[in-house]
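Troubleshooting: if your tokenizer reports a length mismatch, compare your output against this known-good record of 188 residues.
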Amino acid sequence: MPNRIILLLFAILLLSGCSATVKPPENLVDPVTIYLVDHGRHASLVLPTEDRFTRFSYGDWDYYALRKTGLNNAIPALFWSTTGALGRQTIPAADGHPDWQAANLIIEAIHPIEVEKQASQDLSIKLADTFQQFGEQHYINYQTGMQFVPIDQKYRIDRNSNYRIGQWLEVLGCEVEGILILSNWRIE
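Known-good structure output:
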């Protein structure tokens, strides 16, 4: 078992230079700007909702949502299927754009992407519905400013936040290619 972990960690280090490429949809009829936010190791998606923005993210329940970041939680989060967490945060608007300072986020890069407005609204509703469905175990993390619920999508290194963001981007009509383990995004 330890050899498999060492081998996987070595593979991750080799892949760390690899990026995921996002090709936004073309020929948009009713475009809206969404934001892919790179936080370093993970990413989140910010969608417009009426007069504000909603940030959605995904991670391991214990490690990401509850901030139990010790080795005892990191190893299971990476190598076993653990409980996933859906996070959301309301971000106020400033001149029609997210007020990043008010959001109080760690940001490595912000990638604005134009998609169809209806696709963005549909995804926002779907994620909000998922949040409501599992909302009984609602948890507010005051350090990150996010609300979290545990969901039935299992988390592990190959089904992490970047993988989930890639899925959401595909729902929005984007083409996503490349390695989705690390938060290393390139927009065409």
